[in-house]
Amino acid sequence: MRILRQPFGFSRRLLIECWNSTDSASKRAVAWAPLAQKLRKAACIFPNQRKELSAMPETETSKGDSQLFSPPSGVRGMTKLDRTAFQKTVTVPVLKVRKAVVNGLMRVLKRAALRRPGIKRVIEDPEDEESRLVMLDPYKMRTHESFDKEELSALKQLNVSPQLSEYNLELTYENFKLEEILKAVLPEGQDVTSGFSRVGHIAHLNLRDHQLPFKHLIGQVTIDKNPGITSAVNKINNIDSTYRNFQMEVLSGEENMMTKVRENNFAYEFDFSKVYWNPRLSTEHSRIIELLNPEDVLFDVFAGVGPFAIPAAKKNCTVFANDLNPESHKWLLHNCKLNKVEQKVKVFNMDGKDFLQGPVREELMQQLGVSKEAKHSVHIVMNLPAKAIEFLSAFRSLLDGPPCSSEHLPVVHCYSFSKDVTPAEDVRHRAEAVLGISLEACSSVHFVRNVAPNKEMVCITFQIPAATLYESQTLHPENHEDPPLKRQRTDDDFSEKNPQIASKP
Predict the structure, then answer these.
(1) Does an H or E element contain 326, and which?
(2) Is the dihedral of CA 424, 425, 428, 434 positive or negative?
(3) Which of 352, 202, 353 has the alpha carbon at shortest distance from 277?
(4) CB 277 within 8 A of CB 261
(5) Which of 38, 73, 137, 242 has the most neighbouring CB atoms within 10 Å?
(6) What was the pLDDT predicted at 30?
(7) Edge-to-edge strands of the sheet including 3-4?
(8) CA 494 – CA 195 distance, rounded (Å)
(9) Of 444, 408, 445, which Cα lies nearest the Cα of 423?
(10) Which backbone phi and psi does 225 adopt, to 5 degrees?
(11) Torsion angles phi and psi, residue 313, rounded to 5
């Protein structure tokens, strides 16, 4: 690598003369005028040099510049990762500084300094052991005029000349970002999706059809570029099994699906290949927990491995948690012990309808029959977006005897997907059809996230009307026969194309 001492388009002698001047600020300003005039003349005298060293405006970049930090074109179409094929040499501007002032100067040059993975911004000067070279961002720093006022002031105080030199920088595979590598490898013009769900040491990808020929390369690059990731998997079918898990293919790395995650300061351990877990729901989990008060009662109908149940129990709520999947049931018990809340959570392994019409009914009969002064609330969470609304029919005529006061009626948080143009109204109308009563005046709908284009996940919250909950109450004449409750779950929560959480107010 060589250093070219020719400054970027200006005279070193004139610059030093001006910079080292001890005149007043006004005189130095005047001194710059003839310098600028001489620079313009120099551009006419040496047109070839001007062409080589001149800078485009900082708001624009040529096609070549825009590809400066792109991998070599020869990697296009690569399906088996060859890290050696990513070697490339680029020219970047450098600033020579005395070794003693490097630390103080770097605090000021944060904007201008080069930022690339695995590259040191300050390196030794091969021609002067008492100096260092600060590598600068070529997109921001073209000439000395690219320094802002604060930077120029710092350079002056530290007696550092603002002249720039060129440095030939060797780039390797380690210096490119995940997105840059995939964009260079995949066919030009095709969409590049680099997002994934992180589940402990596992990167869960949802590859599209055009990415499948490159799946093993994508998996390996994902592992390489994300510290702590040791396995990359891709879903190969929809979540359509009874137990809400899905088949997955290990693209690269270890095949160990036993993982541990932390969410909202709680730890969860499970076999990712056998249970349902979505890290994009952490905000929703905490939102529901914030609605609860100590001593409240929570029924979690589709509890999974415990992201609602365990934080609620830690908040000193009484929790009844259920899941049909035997693996989820096993890990729910394990995680309750792991988080030291096993005494606060009663765990069940039942179908959702059986849970509602069995343990939930029995507990509600007891809870709603206690002293009228009871101040705790009852909440029922139903997080099975593909099917939960159908399970609402289990609430119809669920309880016997005289109704309790309306303030003690259970509050339901029911999740659902909607592809309707007005998802809030769509979900409310569907819930009303199952319950046989209007919810317009007693419900609210919270937008959880965008699952896929034109598909929203929402949560409808309402207090179960006494006319629905109690057998002795008269329901609306438009009541119809309950729709069949299918146990098969078709939650395709991982089929989204947008990798980011889309939360709406």
Answers:
(1) helix 326-338
(2) negative
(3) 202
(4) yes
(5) 137
(6) 41
(7) 3-4, 164-171, 88-98, 128-135, 122-125
(8) 12
(9) 445
(10) -95, 5
(11) -65, -35
